[in-house]
Structure prediction request, 399 residues.
Amino acid sequence: MSSPLATVITPSYNQGRYIRETIESILRQDYPQLEHIVIDGGSTDETLAILRHYAQTDPRFRFVSEPDRGQSHAINKGLAMARGEIIGWVNSDDTYLPGAVQKAVQALQLHPEWAIVTGNGYIIDEHSRIQYPVHYWQTDVKQLYHSCPVIQPTAFLRKNVFQQHGGVDESLRFCMDYDLWIRLSKNHAFGFIRDYLANARIHAACKSATQWNTIGFPEVLKTVVKHYGSISTTWMGYAKQLGIPYIIHQCKANALFGVSPTIAQMNRFPDLWVPPQFTITVEADPGFPATSLLIRGAVFLAPSPGKPANPFVCMATVNGQSRGSFATALPNFTWEIPLDRSRTRNVVTLFSSRFAMSPDHLQKNKRAVSFLAQEVVPLSAEEAAFYRILLQVPSMKTP
Prediction:
């Protein structure tokens, strides 16, 4: 049986501390038909000198170093340059174990029905010391709903299948691999071998350590919802720990659903109390209209003496048009006020049913206040749909 050419792609940016070890782990493989392509994003550390050395000393090695649009773009650039029939993808701080390429290619040759093969791996630290082994089993579209059971550097794909699916999604900055596995699993079989194929490095500066809560996990949830329309119980467990307010904030801060609408102006006081007539101006990009405004608040005002404890009520208008009333009998509440998505600018006004005179500690006088507006968050259509799915997660903290 002939040996097909295998291409290993490595996206890189300022990983001079680790990339030599990564390259050596690939070029020392015992598989005869191998090429290694590094797509560097214009590193400013010692990376470029290391890449030039290998390009001059090993004909199997090629690299490009120029500014790019991030890791996903780099992987797709490498895919376009690849000559091999089999594609491996190893990040610039991960490494292959001896024999990994040979084992993976042989498995794909023995199983032409497999579009991808994966294996076991180890988690290593910054000093390449093994922290613990990671064991996974056969992967399919149902299992991927609950978790990501693929150790990314252990994965080897058929190039034609990778290309048919358009490479990785360049809009993703963290879980582009998870998204790819889900897309592949819908139409293709995954293979698995029990050998240990690669080391995935976790260190203080890696994305998994620095960006998991801020970009990684919100992007994972977005990806799961995009493909499955709901969130599995496994991912729910992580979501409960963070709560809806945090997740929504990170989605907006990192523009995971496109250009997020913003608060242009509001008359909330610096201590988060709002006046009896609370006005908020929301601005949105025409391509990502605002569809609703979330207000998470707290009411601490007692009813007037001698009067029943009626619910606290706010009458709402949007652009001067009534949106009805919003009420709460509890101290804490969350209201979602629909906006006019045909407009790029919406003015929302809430008229409170009761208020009190409260000292303004900054101005040393009294002002009329109605409730604490702890969060005021405008949502695009995509963000609002995502928010409503999060609300379905049992025991989630509401914003």
Q: What stands out?
A: The chain is about 30% helix and 35% strand. Residues 6-203 form a domain with the Spore Coat Polysaccharide Biosynthesis Protein SpsA; Chain A fold (CATH 3.90.550.10).
